């Protein structure tokens, strides 16, 4: 079975169920009658709005600081979950000025009894994380918190790529099971779903924004200013937002960060792949690789059930980063996180940049690992399936 | 399609309707692959249509409409999934009563059911939505190497299923 067969099977025409088309038609009709999206959401909302006493918000603020008396940054719950590492490694990021606390006095806004405080940043030249503490909001048990709108701009530029979420208190252990921060197995609810723990021990919630500036040449994250606006707080269920508070919180956060990286210029071919690793840049939480690589475009053609020609185009890619080898021989694999890639057709070069889910001691890395081939069987990739590129 | 996008950006509701309807096969297949029931898929698609109408003006390049729309749809589906947190292990096949609508699409759905859950979305985004591996990596927040691994294994699995049925 070749790609053409796969395309034909995957793209076969199927019947759109009545419930799906009818709901879509209703939505189109509502749009045609000039009702805006905001008005349509308000028709769905529960108008049982609650306003929480301010006293609760003020009391919780006593726990809001993240910088201990010793001057060390105590990482937020959510960002600890984003990056595997020791306490020493986390302190190292602060020393390197990649991770930094945010002064709550300047970056805290209270509206309708709820206080949103920017508490921590992690900033490199390509990626940034912002963590916010939300206090004074009494989240009903079993509900998922949600902001109606979140808007982020960097130095006034709102054309940035970012994702954001409320931290749900869940992690995965070595066997892939969901556990809470204390290591206990996550509970299941009546419908078989996992019970999230959005609230910390002090009742506060945490919101994390991840910014990816790899493919945006107009954005500089280091020493920039992030303007973040949150609007309306409530809960979400099945994509339907139910507001509890009509309010806005606007914060301006100075992002410092560091572009300190370990770099190596190479000319290392990756087997018969046609790719040559020319340059690597390693920060404690990201890896960028520049390749010489003439990506080849290919098109898969097929015919669908209606006799129409369908095409899927893509291009070949070089072997991608899979991890690192440390000087003591330890392989750190499966650590790569989100990022981006760029292909430069004119110069036959290719660049990838990804975060790492493990804090790296860059001085201890002696090789970058690239994925050679996909093993036939499921399971971890071993060194025989990797290109090992030593770096000085 | 670029022309439809630009007209829709000028708040032409008919152009927008035509645009979204042209993507209905892709949207339904993607939503169903993630949510596995029509009611939730209908909710996710309806909300995706609303968000696209609201935010289409922010799309700077019309040629990226499909990727942009797919990202919105996946976010809507993930919101629903977070409430359910259901995982379907490879060994199990979720047995549910099949409404008559699903019976009509049974061949496609059985093909999809034959794929491991972790390969399914990558295969859908690549072969149904026509996204590149880098775009899939960005949307699913996973490394490109993982996308390629899952594509390769998904292809192998489909090939095995194809030969078994013959």
Could you walk me through the main structural features you see in this protein, from its secondary elements to its overall organization?
The complex is a heterodimer of chains A (392) and B (166). Chain A is mostly beta strands and 392 residues long. The relative contact order of chain A is 0.14. In chain A, strands 1, 2, 3, 4, 6 and 9 form a 6-stranded antiparallel beta sheet that branches. Chain A has a 5-stranded antiparallel beta sheet with strand order 12-13-14-20-19, with no helix packed on it. The longest helix of chain A is centred in the N-terminal third of the chain and has 15 residues, at 18-32. Chain A has 6 helices and 22 strands. Chain B is mainly alpha-helical. Chain B folds into 2 domains: 1-86, RNA polymerase sigma factor, region 2, helix turn helix motif (Rna Polymerase Sigma Factor, Chain: A), CATH 1.10.1740; 101-166, Winged helix-like DNA-binding domain superfamily/Winged helix DNA-binding domain (Arc Repressor Mutant, subunit A), CATH 1.10.10. Chain B has helices spanning 2-9, 13-22, 24-35, 38-55, 65-84, 100-104, 106-113, 117-128, 133-140, 144-165. In chain B, helix 3 runs parallel beside helix 5 (65-84). The termini of chain B are far apart. The model of chain B is unreliable at 86-101 (pLDDT under 50). The interface between A and B is large, with 68 and 69 residues.
Short description:
The complex is a heterodimer of chains A (392) and B (166). With 392 residues, chain A is mainly beta.
Supply the CATH class of the largest domain in chain B. Mainly Alpha
Mean pLDDT of chain A: 81
Please count the beta strands of chain B (DSSP E, at least 2 residues each): 0
- CATH topology category name of the largest domain in chain B: Rna Polymerase Sigma Factor, Chain: A
- Which regions of chain B contain 5 or more consecutive residues with pLDDT less than 50? 86-101
């Amino acid at each position: 079975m070749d790609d053409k067969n796969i395309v034909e099977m995957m793209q076969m025409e199927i019947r759109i169920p009545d419930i799906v088309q009818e709901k879509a038609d209703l939505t189109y009709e509502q749009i045609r009658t000039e009702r805006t999206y905001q008005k349509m959401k308000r028709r769905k909302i529960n108008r049982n709005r609650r306003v929480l006493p301010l006293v609760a918000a003020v009391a919780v603020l006593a726990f809001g600081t993240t910088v201990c008396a010793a001057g060390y940054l105590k990482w937020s719950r959510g960002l600890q979950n984003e990056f595997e590492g020791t306490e020493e490694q986390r302190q190292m990021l602060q020393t390197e000025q990649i991770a930094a606390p945010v002064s709550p006095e300047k970056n805290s806004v209270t509206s309708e009894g709820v206080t949103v405080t920017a508490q921590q940043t992690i900033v490199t030249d390509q990626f940034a994380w912002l963590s916010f503490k939300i206090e004074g909001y009494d989240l009903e048990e079993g509900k998922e918190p949600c902001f109606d709108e979140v808007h982020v701009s960097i130095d006034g530029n709102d054309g940035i790529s970012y994702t954001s979420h409320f931290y749900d208190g869940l992690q995965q252990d070595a066997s892939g099971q969901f556990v809470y921060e204390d290591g206990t197995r996550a509970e299941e609810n009546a419908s078989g779903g996992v019970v999230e723990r959005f609230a910390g021990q002090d009742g506060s919630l945490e919101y994390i924004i991840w910014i990816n500036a790899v493919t945006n040449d107009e954005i500089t994250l280091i020493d920039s200013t992030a303007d973040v606006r949150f609007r309306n707080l409530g809960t979400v269920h099945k994509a339907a937002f139910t507001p509890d508070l009509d309010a806005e919180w606007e914060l301006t956060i100075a992002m410092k960060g560091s572009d300190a990286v370990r770099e190596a210029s190479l000319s290392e071919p990756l087997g018969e792949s046609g790719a040559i690793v020319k340059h690597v840049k390693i920060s404690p939480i990201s890896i960028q690789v520049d390749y010489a690589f003439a990506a080849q475009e290919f098109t898969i053609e097929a015919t669908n059930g209606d006799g129409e020609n369908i095409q899927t185009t893509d291009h070949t890619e070089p072997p991608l980063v899979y991890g690192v080898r440390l000087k003591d021989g330890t392989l750190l694999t499966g650590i790569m996180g989100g990022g981006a890639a760029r292909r430069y057709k004119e110069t036959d070069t290719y660049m990838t940049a990804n975060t790492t889910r493990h804090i790296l001691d860059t001085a201890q890395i002696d090789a970058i690992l690239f994925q050679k081939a996909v093993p036939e069987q499921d399971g971890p990739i071993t060194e025989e399936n990797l290109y090992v590129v030593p770096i000085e | 399609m670029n022309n439809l996008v630009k007209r829709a950006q000028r708040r032409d509701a008919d152009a927008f309707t035509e645009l979204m309807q042209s993507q209905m096969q892709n949207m339904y297949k993607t939503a169903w692959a993630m949510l596995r029931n029509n009611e939730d898929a209908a909710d996710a698609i309806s909300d995706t249509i609303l968000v696209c109408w609201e935010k289409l003006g922010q799309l700077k390049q019309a040629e990226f409409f499909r990727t942009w729309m797919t990202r919105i749809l996946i976010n809507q589906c993930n919101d629903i999934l977070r409430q359910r947190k259901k995982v379907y292990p490879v060994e199990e096949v979720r047995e549910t009563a099949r409404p008559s609508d699903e019976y009509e699409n049974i061949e496609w759905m059985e093909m999809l059911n034959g794929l491991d859950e972790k390969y399914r979305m990558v295969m859908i985004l690549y072969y149904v939505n026509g996204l590149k591996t880098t775009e899939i990596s960005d949307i699913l927040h996973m490394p490109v190497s993982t996308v390629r691994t899952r594509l390769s294994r998904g292809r192998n699995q489909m090939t095995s299923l194809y030969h078994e049925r013959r």
